[in-house]
């Protein structure tokens, strides 16, 4: 994906993945892509995460990004592992400057008007609204969207299969991030593929 906007428009749900065992990487990616979810966010929350990105990147059709990227060091490590886009829970100047220099599609997290304004100062207008439910939910997002009309969001955090359609119905929301598609534990490829297909059909 050449831009973060194109990535956000490619799927209604970006699976947020926390994977401890690299052996699970390819089967999960294959199941997700098979179900119609091609943009995969591997969070840098486990020691295996970078190797998981490497393995998932080998799966045909998978567009693998790194999430929970906190600083330029994380960014460099993720890019070296083959990450095709970068997601951060927040918006800092050092990480944003490094991401812009690299040219990688970049989705920083925002939770309020000040975060968005700082992002706009950097020339950004696509953001992860995080943590979505804890930051006031859809009501808060609607209030922010009314002020920042050109901004588009990927709400993440506390969103479920049941609530995702409500978020996706708002015109400022291009996609949502969700962890429900791949639950914790030993992966069940058939169940993941079914969940991915249901999520892909939400748009």
From TrEMBL:
<dbReference type="InterPro" id="IPR031337">
    <property type="entry name" value="KDPG/KHG_AS_1"/>
</dbReference>
<dbReference type="InterPro" id="IPR013785">
    <property type="entry name" value="Aldolase_TIM"/>
</dbReference>
<keyword id="KW-0456">Lyase</keyword>
<dbReference type="InterPro" id="IPR031338">
    <property type="entry name" value="KDPG/KHG_AS_2"/>
</dbReference>
<dbReference type="InterPro" id="IPR000887">
    <property type="entry name" value="Aldlse_KDPG_KHG"/>
</dbReference>
<keyword id="KW-0119">Carbohydrate metabolism</keyword>
<comment type="subunit">
    <text>Homotrimer.</text>
</comment>
<dbReference type="Pfam" id="PF01081">
    <property type="entry name" value="Aldolase"/>
</dbReference>
<comment type="similarity">
    <text>Belongs to the KHG/KDPG aldolase family.</text>
</comment>
<comment type="pathway">
    <text>Carbohydrate acid metabolism; 2-dehydro-3-deoxy-D-gluconate degradation; D-glyceraldehyde 3-phosphate and pyruvate from 2-dehydro-3-deoxy-D-gluconate: step 2/2.</text>
</comment>
<keyword id="KW-0704">Schiff base</keyword>
<protein>
    <recommendedName>
        <fullName>2-dehydro-3-deoxy-phosphogluconate aldolase</fullName>
        <ecNumber>4.1.2.14</ecNumber>
    </recommendedName>
</protein>
């Amino acid at each position: 994906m050449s831009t973060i906007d194109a990535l956000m428009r490619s799927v209604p749900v970006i699976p947020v993945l926390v994977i401890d065992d690299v052996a699970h990487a390819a089967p999960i990616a294959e199941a997700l892509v098979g179900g119609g979810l091609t943009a995969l966010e591997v969070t840098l929350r486990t020691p295996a995460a970078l190797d998981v990105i490497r393995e998932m990147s080998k799966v045909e059709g998978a567009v693998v990004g790194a999430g929970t990227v906190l600083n330029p060091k994380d960014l460099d490590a993720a890019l070296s592992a083959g990450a095709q886009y970068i997601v951060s829970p927040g918006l800092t100047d050092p990480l944003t400057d490094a991401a812009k220099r690299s040219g990688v599609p970049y989705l920083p997290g925002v939770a309020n008007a000040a975060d968005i304004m700082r992002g706009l100062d950097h020339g950004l207008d696509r953001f992860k609204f995080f943590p979505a439910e804890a930051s006031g939910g859809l009501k808060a997002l609607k209030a922010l969207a009314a002020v920042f009309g050109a901004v588009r969001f990927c709400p993440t955090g506390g969103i479920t299969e049941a609530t995702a359609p409500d978020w996706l119905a708002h015109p400022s929301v291009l996609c949502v991030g969700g962890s429900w598609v791949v639950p914790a534990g030993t992966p069940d490829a058939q169940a993941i593929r079914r969940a991915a297909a249901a999520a892909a059909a939400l748009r």
